[in-house]
Design brief:
CATH architecture: 3-Layer(aba) Sandwich
Radius of gyration: 18 Å
Distance between the termini: 48 Å
Helix content: 40-55%
Number of helices: 10
CATH topology: Rossmann fold
Low-confidence stretches: 247-251
Length: 263
């Protein structure tokens, strides 16, 4: 019996990478994306069974993609990948940006997780929530974004503990990834500079593979790369040190960004 899979925000970037891997594994993949035309085009290009317009802020949109997936097989995996990455200090963000971060990153993941739990059959399934390394510790310049991703990590761990037998919920926490979201951020902003201070920017394929590898595993939180997770968790234990070190890391990030643009 064929199994089905949902990938939100799947028209491009990490979501597309996940969808491609799940198609290759033989799943009937349904792609949801705010850009419905791009979702349909991506589905046709990679062999997914459907690409639908989806606004993850609307709980009903998750029900619709779950129903579409059920038409193609038993739903066994759901990737809450859709997200926005407005960078900036809390004081500099507009009210609209703050609301969008919370509604897309946190509420969108919440509604998707609820829809997946309701749609999984007796055999259960996996929910993979794409969070961020910034959700594990202090990241100046990403305060609101980091807060939503920290909430996603907490949500994932708590729901995993309360979920019925056979259902597993995971949070993937990658460092900076080479996507349009990162490219759209302010290169002079502290958040972008700190992101580029931690070594090479991750590729979409590496992150997508890590997300798919969580399916069927008992691992709840995974960081990519693993060593950066340990560094950020350590910083969370001494936030005062992070504040003083931020300027040094930002300078390192600016140098890395200059090298990247020159190459």
């Amino acid at each position: 019996m064929q199994t089905s899979c949902v990938v939100t925000g799947g028209a491009r970037g990490i979501g597309r990478g996940i969808a491609e891997l799940m198609v290759a594994r033989g799943h009937a993949v349904v792609i949801g994306d705010l850009d419905g035309w791009a979702a349909a085009a991506t589905a046709a290009e990679i062999g997914a069974v459907a690409g639908l317009a989806q606004d993850v802020r609307d709980p009903a949109s998750h029900v619709l993609v779950a129903e579409e997936a059920a038409r193609h097989g038993a739903l066994t995996s759901w990737f809450n990948n859709a997200g926005v990455g407005d960078d900036g200090t809390l004081a500099s963000l507009s009210e609209q940006q703050v609301r969008r971060l919370v509604e897309v990153n946190l509420l969108g993941t919440t509604w998707g997780t609820r829809a997946a739990l309701a749609a999984f059959g007796p055999a259960g399934g996996d929910v993979v929530n794409v969070a961020s390394l910034s959700g594990l510790g202090p990241v100046p310049g990403y305060s609101m974004y980091a807060a939503t991703k920290a909430a996603v990590v907490s949500l994932s761990a708590s729901v995993n503990a309360e979920a019925p037998r056979g259902v597993r919920v995971h949070a993937l926490c990658p460092d900076g990834v080479d996507t349009a979201m990162l490219a759209a951020q302010d290169p002079d902003g502290l958040g972008s500079q700190l992101t580029h201070s931690g070594g090479p920017i991750l590729g979409v394929a590496e992150v997508a593979e890590a997300a798919v590898a969580l399916v069927g595993s008992r691992r709840v939180v995974r960081t990519v790369p693993g060593w950066r997770g340990a560094v950020v968790r350590g910083a969370a234990l001494a936030p005062g040190v992070t504040q003083h070190a931020a300027s040094l890391f930002a300078a390192q990030g600016r140098r890395a960004m200059r090298r990247r643009s020159a190459s």
